[in-house]
Each structure stands twice: as structure tokens, then as C-alpha cells.
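User: Fold this; C-alpha cells only.

Assistant: Input:
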Amino acid sequence: MATRKSIAWILEFTAKLPDEQEQIKCLQANDCEPIRIILQYCFHPSAKWLLPEGPPPYKPCEYPNVDNMLYGEAKKLYLFLEGGNNSLNQLKREKMFIDLLESITPADAKLLISVKEKKLPFTGLSPETIKKAYPGIF
């Protein structure tokens, strides 16, 4: 049985491809809602994170496996954005984010922290290329 690659792995692999057309094909071949959510919250100008800048204090997951990747958690990321859930107080929101980071693979946690900062943790994948792969994403 093939092991599912993490979102961080897919995006980093795509970023390392030398040609924009190859990057577009790779993004399209791996298209799924969680990847689109991550990229939207990273690059969409209206996505405003309600979390402090910088990495929070968290303990990376020691036992990463296929069940604790970001795929299943991506739909909940709206909770950390402006307009996502105004009933959450800031302390609860920050605690939930730390809990999330501690429950997913270390690579996905690193990706998520960078996305919160409105950037990717690696170079080579531009918003323009993402728009070409997924028209209308931003």
C-alpha cells in the first residue's frame, strides 16, 4: 500500500522542480481541498491570521504517521483567521493552534507556521505559478 505524502512534502517537492510547467502539472496532479486551503491562507490578501507572529512554543509530534497529517485538519484552519470564529478568545485560539501543531507531522507543522506568516518555508513556488495551476484560487 502506498503511503500518502504530507502536504509539506508535496509542496516542497513541487517547489524544487526546475520548470514552471512541471510545477503546475505536479500541483494539478496532487490537487485536493486541503492543499488549496493551505495555499489560499498563505497567499490570499484577505486571509488575516489572528495569531502572534513567529513560531509558538510547541513540542513537535514524536510519532508522525499518515493519520496525523494536515489533510484532516485543514478545514479547521478558518478558526485562526479573522472572521473565522469571533466567539473564540485569543488565549483559546492560541492554545488550539499549539495543540494542532503538536498533533501533526513536524514537516506539516513547520509549513503551517510559515503559512501563518504568509510565506512558504522553502523557495521556488510562486503565487503566480499557483494561480496558473489553480485558476481563481486567490
